Amino acid sequence: MKNKFPWYIDPSIDEINEAWSCGILTVDANVLLDLYRYHKITRQSIMESIENYSGDKWISYQTADEFLRNRRAVIANSKRYFENASKLISPLTSYVADTRQKLKDNRLLGDEIMQKLINDINSIIKDYESTIENTKNEYYGFVENDEILKRVMSIFGVGDDFSEEHKLLALEEGKRRVENKIPPGYMDVDKGGERPYGDYYMWLQILNKSKADKKPIVLITSEEKEDWWYITSGLTIGQDKSL
Questions:
Q1: Where are the beta strands (DSSP E) in the chain?
Q2: What is d(CA 79, CA 71) in angstroms, rounded to the nearest whole number?
Q3: How far apart are CA 220 and CA 222, in angstroms?
Q4: How many H-runs (helices) and E-runs (strands) does the chain carry?
């Protein structure tokens, strides 16, 4: 039965161990772009985990293209997150000043205790503001000196693009799959140009790589949409078996 319906049968422990020990590790573009959205400690942990994978580390041409095309926009958009953080902290200064004024009316608290409380709180606020500013400058520095990009390029090999003939075939199949809601990627239908078929291009290039090298693939993705996962009753059961 497994030979006829392998997509419905979960891999065995031995097959999983083989994939992790001597397979090919790959990621999608969102995983790479998310490296710019994480704190540096989280980012470091993720990249070290990838580097420690014992098999080959490879990304599809489609993944590399999407990553390189979108990385500058992700870096630029980080400005919004820093601005939001600053806006959330800013009112605290006014709140502390207002609290100090109210505490002055409490005769049971001495001025020394009250002033220490205010000074301690203001010091913490300033530390957070300084941390936000320093982190913001670090992220903006990625535009000119992108250590994340350098590290990604050193970790992964990159596959080839489709030939002109195969690209036309992939485009037609991508259109058919989106129109008929065949995963992966049909939920990207509202994107412009060939972007609705990007997930399928990546998926096809990964399959071709696995066939050519005769090795299992470990795909890491941050996708959560139903065109990648089998979701029932609000629960994610596993990968969509129609992929």
A1: 24-27, 56-59, 157-158, 217-220, 229-232, 235-239
A2: 14
A3: 7
A4: 8, 6
Rounded to 5 degrees, φ, ψ at 57 are -120, 120
CA 161 centroid distance within chain: 23
Quick one: which of 176, 173, 192, 189 has its CA closest to 226?
189
Strand ranges (E), 139-189:
157-158
Q: What's the pLDDT tens digit per position in 11-48?
A: 888 888 888 888 999 999 999 999 998 888 999 999 99
Give DSSP secondary structure letters for 74-98.
Answer: HHHHHHHHHHHHHHHHHHHHHHHHH
Q: What's the Rg (C-alpha) of the chain?
A: 25
Residue labelled with tokens 């994340």:
148
- CA–CA separation, 100 vs 119, rounded Å? 10
pLDDT digits (tens, 9 = 90+) for 154-196: 999 999 999 999 999 999 999 999 899 888 878 777 787 788 8
Q: Report the SS3 class of residue 146.
A: coil
> Beta strands 56-59 and 24-27: pairing type?
parallel
**Tokens for 180?**
């008929």
Buried b (16+ CB within 10 A) or exposed e, 139-173: beebeeebebbebbeebbeebeebeeeeeeebeee
